[in-house]
Amino acid sequence: MPAKTWTLLGADGRPFTSDRPGTLGGHRRNKLYGRLDCRSALQALARGGYQAQRVFFLDEATALAAGYRPCAVCMPERYRLWKAGELGVQVKPDRE
């Protein structure tokens, strides 16, 4: 039986196959990431239209490097730091 693999996004925003599961989920079009148990993401998944845009990251550093921002719902403190420019990435005007 082949080993289990997962498709994750790398720091360059491109998918790759990993032998480790992602620790964070994200939304490709909205360029945000959050916890896998985020109530907002789970509600969107239950409604249906979200799954095609779902991506996964190995860790927060990779998500940030790929240009994604923290979710304000499940990661409010990380979102506040990102918004203040304290996560080492610039806030883009179209994302404020």
UniProtKB/TrEMBL annotation:
InterPro entries the record matches: Ada-like_dom_sf, Ada_DNA_repair_Zn-bd
Region (Disordered) residue spans: 1-25
Please tell me whether the keyword Transmembrane is annotated for this protein. no
Q: Name one GO molecular function term.
A: zinc ion binding
GO BP, one annotated term: regulation of DNA-templated transcription
Span of domain Ada DNA repair metal-binding: 26-77
Query: Has the keyword Signal been applied to this entry?
Result: no
Q: Which keywords annotate this record?
A: Activator
Task: Indicate the secretion signal residues.
Answer: none
| Pfam families, per the entry | Ada_Zn_binding
Name this protein carries in UniProt? Metal-binding protein
